[in-house]
Amino acid sequence: MAPTRSSDSALSRPARKQISYAELEEIRHSAERMVGEGMIYNVWYNKMSGGDTGHGFESKTKSKTRCDIARDSGYTRADMRIRASAGGVSDTTYVCLFFARGCCPKGEECNYLHRLPRPYEVADQGTDVFGREKHGQYRDDMGGVGSMLRVNKTLYVGRINEETSLSFRRASANPKDNQDDTGKTPMSRIVRRHFSEWGEIEHVRAMTGRGTAFVTYKYEANAQFAKEAMMHQSLDHDEILNVRWAAEDPRSDGEERDELERRKLAEKRIADHENERQELEKDYEDLKNDPSIDWEEYARAKRQRLALSDEEARRLDEENQRGWDAYYAEQKKASTDKPATLLKSSLLNNEAITSLQQLRTQPTTPKSSSALGGLAAYASDSD
C-alpha cells in the first residue's frame, strides 16, 4: 500500500469538506456533556481542560469521525500559497489537525494542508507537523504533542479487541506457531493494514493476548499524523484505541536508529543552509561578472551621492540658521512697538478697548451721603 502516492495524486482536485460546521459543533457539545461540570473540550489538543480531570480512559467514547486519505485529500489555500511562493517553506506547510481527525468543515478553504505530511517537511524539531510546539519532556501518560529531545517514530496502540477465533487463541498460546512466512501474526496484520494508511511502516510488534501493539513508522511526521488520526478509533471491531507515544523503540537497534535520524535531520539543515549560501554566492558572482555593469562608474556615482548628501546637510543647516536669525530680528522689532504688541496680544478686540477708554473719560456721579450708608441701598422684598 502506498498512501503517499494516492495522496499526492489527489492534489489535482480540491479538498472535500469532511463534515459541516453544525456537525463539528455537535461533536464539541457531546464531548462537554460526556464529562463533569466545568470541563471544556479542547479540539486542538483533543483533551478536556478545567473541572475534574480524574476521568479514566473508560469514560472515552469512540470518535465520530475518521480521516479517509483516498477521499479527503486535496489542495487547499495552503497549497495555493506554496505554489505562489515557488515552493517556499512557510507556516502554510503545516497539516490541518482537524483533517487528520476527519472533522475539518472548511475543505479547500482551509489555510492548512489536507494531505499526508512528506518526509522532513517540518525540519524544526521544536514543532510537529500540525504546527504545535513540543515540550522538553513527555507527559506522564505519554500523550500530547511529544518531546523535542527525541525523534520518536513509534506509537503505542492499546485496548485492541482481539478476535476470539481459533487462530487468535492459538496465537495467544504460542505466537510462533501462528506466524506466516514473514513472521506476522493475525493481529499484527490487522494493525499494519489500518496504520499503513498514514505512511510507510518499518516495524509492527503485536503483543498477542495483551491487546497492545507497537507501530514504528519510517518517518516521524507520519507517526505524528497517525497518532491523531487513530486516537479513539477502531480496527476491525468496536474497540476504542488508546494511541500514545512509545516510551522506547521496541526494536533492538531502536536507539541507534533514533540517533541516525537525528543526524540526518542535522545534516539536512546544514545542507539547506549551505545550498542557500551557494545560491547567494552564485548571484553575487553573476552580478560581479556582468559586463553591462561599469563598477568604476558605480563607485564614482556612489561617492557623488554621498558628497551631495553632505552638501545638502550643510545647506539645510544654513537655512535653519537664517531662519532663527530672522525670527530673533522680528522679536526685537516687535518689542519697540509696545502698544501694537499689547493690542495684538490682548484678549480684547479693538472695539472693546475703545469702549473702555471712553468709560474712563466719563464723569462719575457722587455717592449718597446717607447716614445709613450702604444699607440704604437695599429696598423692600416686594420691590
UniProtKB/TrEMBL annotation:
GO terms for cellular component: Prp19 complex; U2-type catalytic step 1 spliceosome; U2-type catalytic step 2 spliceosome. One of its GO terms (molecular function) is zinc ion binding. It is found in: Nucleus. Residues 153-248 form the RRM domain. Gene3D superfamilies: 3.30.70.330, Zinc finger, CCCH-type (4.10.1000.10). Its main location: nucleus. Residues 90-117 form the C3H1-type domain. It holds the Pfam family Torus. Keywords: Cell cycle, Coiled coil, Metal-binding, mRNA processing, mRNA splicing, Nucleus, RNA-binding, Spliceosome, Zinc, Zinc-finger. A zinc finger (C3H1-type) spans 90-117. GO terms for biological process: mRNA processing; RNA splicing. Residues 167-187, 356-383 are annotated as: Disordered. The keyword Amino-acid biosynthesis does not apply. Residues 256-319 form a coiled coil. PROSITE patterns: RRM, ZF_C3H1. It comes from the Eukaryota. Residues 368-383 have a biased composition (Low complexity). InterPro entries: Cwc2/Slt11 (IPR039171), Cwc2_RRM (IPR034181), Nucleotide-bd_a/b_plait_sf (IPR012677), RBD_domain_sf (IPR035979), RRM_dom (IPR000504), Torus (IPR032297), Znf_CCCH (IPR000571), Znf_CCCH_sf (IPR036855). Residues 356-367 have a biased composition (Polar residues). PANTHER family: PRE-MRNA-SPLICING FACTOR CWC2 (PTHR14089:SF2), PRE-MRNA-SPLICING FACTOR RBM22 (PTHR14089). Belongs to the RRM CWC2 family. This is Similar to S.cerevisiae protein CWC2 (Member of the NineTeen Complex (NTC)).
